[in-house]
Amino acid sequence: ENITSDIISSLTPGAQYRVVVYHTNGPLVSPASEPVIIDIEPTGVRDLVVYPLSPTAVILSWQRPYNVAFRKYVLQTFFFNSATQTSQWTTYYEIAATASVIASV
InterPro entries of this UniProt entry (predicted)? Predict the structure, then answer.
């Protein structure tokens, strides 16, 4: 087989890339290959800390993920009802990546 490969580095987590390959021979350029779409998995937030504010409220603090392209954070709560032995995740807030929030839970 005639296989050629290369490494594409410094991609941004959370971003999507479209890659095509073509070859040249002097002034001649081949048609491009079919595009391949690459989705780079995002990394998570760093250093999540919870500070008590009151009996019914907490402050959440975290560091942004490293070099990640994203628009918003989604804060979810997990509630377990011991009486009925049921549980569920609930989306509590969706906030812009540049905002901060104090939440009562």
Answer: FN3_dom (IPR003961), FN3_sf (IPR036116), PTPRO (IPR042996)
**Domain with 57 in it:** 46-104
pLDDT confidence tier of residue 98, bands split at 50, 70 and 90: low
What SS3 string covers the chain? CCCCCCCCCCCCCCCEEEECCCCEECCEECCCCCCEEEECCCCCCEEEEEEEEECCEEEEEEECCCCCCCCEEEEEEEEEECCCCEEEEEEEEEEECCCCCEEEC
Of residues 74 and 100, more confidently modeled:
74
| Higher-confidence position of 35 and 44 | 35
The pTM of the full predicted model, rounded to 2 decimals, is 0.52
Q: Report how many domains make up the chain.
A: 1
Structural domain includes residue 26: no
